[in-house]
TrEMBL record:
Keywords: Lipid metabolism, Methyltransferase, S-adenosyl-L-methionine, Transferase
A Pfam match: CMAS
One of the GO biological process terms: lipid metabolic process
Protein name (database record): SAM-dependent methyltransferase
UniProt-listed Gene3D superfamilies: Vaccinia Virus protein VP39 (3.40.50.150)
Family per similarity comment: Belongs to the CFA/CMAS family.
InterPro entries in UniProt: CFA/CMAS, SAM-dependent_MTases_sf
GO molecular function: methyltransferase activity
Length: 436
């Protein structure tokens, strides 16, 4: 005991923020005027802190065995000083990947995926509304200019995706994992597409239906409550996007997912997948107990794969990657904005959660989300995770088709098109009438 207490005290002196610790028996370490105070109800979580098992400390905070005072930002800045390994690299190795694959097979049936998605996204619409932007975009924003606030950056992200896909009026557009509908509604209103979204969240499905009716888009947009494996549209789509959904697919189902995407789109179509990726090749999950914490309290069934594995599965399904962009620092800034917004609304958040799920569970959920948002922001800053947008085409087999010979799609094979007026797509299945 003396050894790990000595370890803790040594690390306290080197932290970037002042942290104080209290534990049973009236003992204390750290400055009196500390920015963050952790009160330990037992020695187990204190030993976990000394060993760098941050996930176990987070669990103790959620379960009430450790009380903390101070901001979530400062707590996370202090936490980095107790890590003994790189969380991105800690859970790699052949046997770990094998176990992760076996587990993935077990937890990613359509029924289990529906339960896991609803556990997170159907928690409380009012709770999410407290800290998301007005459009409720629950994915990485795109801070195209440094002065953008979160709402503007989320709109910039929506437009960034639409421009990458080169959306044009009348096209059939599918959004897999449509969330609260921001992307499909933006595409319908700003690009004139026929937008279809699918989701497993009952709350989000109802919310998007209301938004479609409010905006008079019933003839242009629709949302279905179904699994991507069970979606059976009457026709193929010209363009497809999936934002923040890859993390829920599972490594054992990833090849099937991309094969399904391939079957859902027309030859020559463009496909964009936007998702969180692992920083380390061969990663099974985040180390230091962080992955286990997220699995237990936030995203049951969530799995992160390295971008190289995702692109391998993309290619195996017959899709060709034409552009990949890493937006990792943008997600750090997005998550800090969410975290700061929640910290400003702690009283309101507690009241909403208590009313929705009861005071006992509500208190645990609030602490879990405080740690999850700030911890994830830190993780993206540190490079423990990444965020990739992967643009692919389904080649149509005709080398003469496209803006440059061999394109086999309307993708221009230059990035200039992202910053100039989009050109109408040659694969358009429902073109707008020509101007007269």
């Amino acid at each position: 005991m003396k050894q790990w207490l000595s370890t803790v005290e040594e690390r306290l002196e080197r932290l970037p923020v002042a942290l104080a610790l209290e534990w049973p028996g009236g003992q204390r370490a750290g400055p009196r005027d500390a920015q963050v105070l952790l009160r330990f109800g037992g020695l187990g979580p204190l030993a976990a802190l000394a060993a760098g098992h941050l996930g176990a400390v987070g669990t103790a905070i959620v379960e009430g065995d450790v009380q903390f005072e101070g901001s979530a930002r400062d707590l996370m800045r202090a936490a980095t000083g107790f890590l003994t390994t790189d969380p991105a690299q800690a859970e790699t190795g052949g046997w770990r990947r094998l176990l992760a694959w076996v587990r993935s097979l077990r937890v990613h049936s359509p029924e289990r995926d529906a339960q896991q998605v609803q556990f997170h996204y159907d928690l409380s619409d009012d709770f999410y509304a407290l800290w998301l932007d007005p459009r409720r975009v629950y994915s990485c924003a795109y801070f195209r200019t440094p002065d953008m606030d979160l709402a503007a950056a989320q709109e910039a992200k929506l437009d960034h995706i639409c421009r990458k896909l080169r959306l044009a009026p009348g096209e059939q557009f599918l959004d897999i994992g449509a969330g609260w509908g921001a992307l499909m509604l933006w595409a319908a209103e700003h690009y004139g597409v026929q937008a279809t979204g699918i989701t497993l969240s009952r709350h989000q499905h109802a919310f998007v239906q209301e938004r479609i009716a409010e905006r008079g888009l019933q003839r242009q947009a629709r949302i279905e409550l179904c699994d991507y494996r069970q979606f059976a549209p009457a026709q193929r789509f010209d363009k497809l996007a999936s934002v923040g959904m890859l993390e829920h697919v599972g490594r054992a189902q990833m090849r099937r997912y991309f094969e399904t995407v391939h079957a859902l789109v027309r030859p020559g179509a463009l496909v964009l997948n936007h998702g969180i990726t692992a920083a380390a090749v061969g990663s099974a999950q985040l180390g230091a107990g962080l992955g286990k914490f997220i699995e237990r309290y936030i995203f049951p069934g969530g799995e992160l794969l390295h971008v190289s594995q995702l692109l391998q599965d993309t290619a195996a399904a017959g899709l060709e990657m034409v552009d990949t962009e890493n937006l990792r620092p943008h997600y750090a800034r997005t998550l800090w904005a969410w975290s700061d917004a929640l910290e400003r609304q702690l009283g309101a958040a507690r009241a909403v959660l208590n009313a929705q799920v009861g005071s006992e569970r509500g208190g645990r959920v609030l602490q879990a989300y405080r740690l999850y948002l700030a911890g994830s922001a830190l993780g993206f800053e540190q490079g423990w995770m990444a965020l990739h947008q992967m643009l692919s085409i389904r080649p149509n087999g005709d080398p003469s088709c496209g803006p440059i010979r061999g394109a086999q799609s309307d993708y221009p094979f230059t990035r200039d098109a992202l910053y100039s007026r989009p050109v109408s797509c040659s694969t358009n299945s429902n073109p707008a009438p020509p101007e007269t």
